[in-house]
Structures are given as structure tokens and as C-alpha cells.
Design goal:
The protein is α+β, with helices and mostly antiparallel strands and 168 residues long. 27% of the residues lie in helices and 23% in strands. A five-stranded mixed beta sheet has the order 4-1-3-2-5. The termini are far apart. The model is unreliable at 1-26 and 39-48 (pLDDT under 50).
């Protein structure tokens, strides 16, 4: 028997006492020591409320554009490589001496959550990655289906290959 099991099966402890939740047997009376609890089943296809589509995370393709005063290309590249190292979710980064574009997939409940994370990315990692003091000048967040529709139609952002940090 597990330590504390006696008090959880009808003892006078705070768990499983006569008036507590779960302290009753299968017929509604006090649980007899050693009596097994009845299990209930869930029909195939039934889902827990928290697993409904509006509550499950989805993938969002994020393109974050930043711009600012000129910075040495080697420093920009090193900073973006550090950001990619710190956060391996980044797919690709393109850069010049006065702007950059970062593309990645974000898992979030909805567009608002994905956009909020994206808008914090540059500022929160500016010091740790040594990113230039640029401001966010553009943000696009699209769902996975829209991203793939654009690619299939031959327009929209080019597929994020090759992966890594590259000059424009």
C-alpha cells in the first residue's frame, strides 16, 4: 500500500473523508477500503472541451521585418546567427546593413498570440544576441494553410530555403 493511501480511502484525513469529493463508493456511499473505482469511457471521436480546435495551438508563418541605422554587416550577421542559435525555431534570416527579415514558424492558439510573440522577439533578444537597435517595420502572420496556398499558386513569400542567415 502507498504511503497515505489509508487516509485517501475513507480515513479522516483531508482527502477522501466521508464528505469529501471522490470519497464515495460506486453506489454513492462511503468507499470500502480496497474497493476499485468505476471507470467511465469516452466514445471514439469525443473530445475533451479544452481540445476543441479553438483551444489547440496552430502553426503560423511569421515574417518580421526590422530596420534602422546602418551597422557593420559582420555584426548584423553574427547577431542573427546568435539569435538563430538561441532560438532554433528560426527558419531563415536575410539581412543588409540597415534592415533584416526573419522568417519562422510559431505555434500559437490564434493569430493574436502569434503576433504578440513576434512583436516581442526583437526587443527581448536584442541584448542577449547583440542585435542592432533597429525597430520593427513590418510583420506578417499567416496560418499554415494560407502559406501553402500562396506557395502552390506561385506567389507570396518564397519558401524559407535555404535555412540559415543570408545577405539580401
Amino acid at each position: 500500500m502507498r504511503p497515505g493511501a489509508a487516509s485517501s480511502r475513507g480515513g479522516t484525513g483531508s482527502r477522501g473523508g466521508a464528505g469529501s469529493r471522490g470519497g464515495t463508493g460506486s453506489r454513492g456511499g462511503p468507499r470500502v477500503p480496497g474497493e476499485e473505482r468505476a471507470l467511465t469511457s469516452v466514445a471514439a471521436g469525443d473530445r475533451f472541451r479544452a481540445e476543441e480546435p479553438e483551444h489547440t495551438p496552430r502553426l503560423w508563418h511569421v515574417t518580421l521585418s526590422v530596420s534602422g541605422a546602418r551597422a557593420p554587416l559582420t555584426e548584423v550577421r553574427r547577431a542573427l546567427e546568435q539569435l538563430a542559435h538561441d532560438h532554433p525555431f528560426l527558419l531563415t534570416s536575410r539581412y543588409a546593413d540597415d534592415h533584416a527579415e526573419i522568417r519562422y514558424w510559431e505555434e500559437a492558439r490564434d493569430l493574436h498570440d502569434a503576433a504578440a510573440v513576434a512583436l516581442r522577439l526583437w526587443g527581448e533578444h536584442r541584448q542577449t544576441a547583440g542585435l542592432p537597435p533597429w525597430e520593427i517595420v513590418g510583420l506578417e502572420v499567416i496560418d499554415r494553410a494560407t502559406y501553402h496556398q500562396r506557395i502552390a499558386a506561385g506567389y507570396g513569400p518564397a519558401p524559407a530555403t535555404p535555412v540559415g542567415v543570408h545577405p539580401f
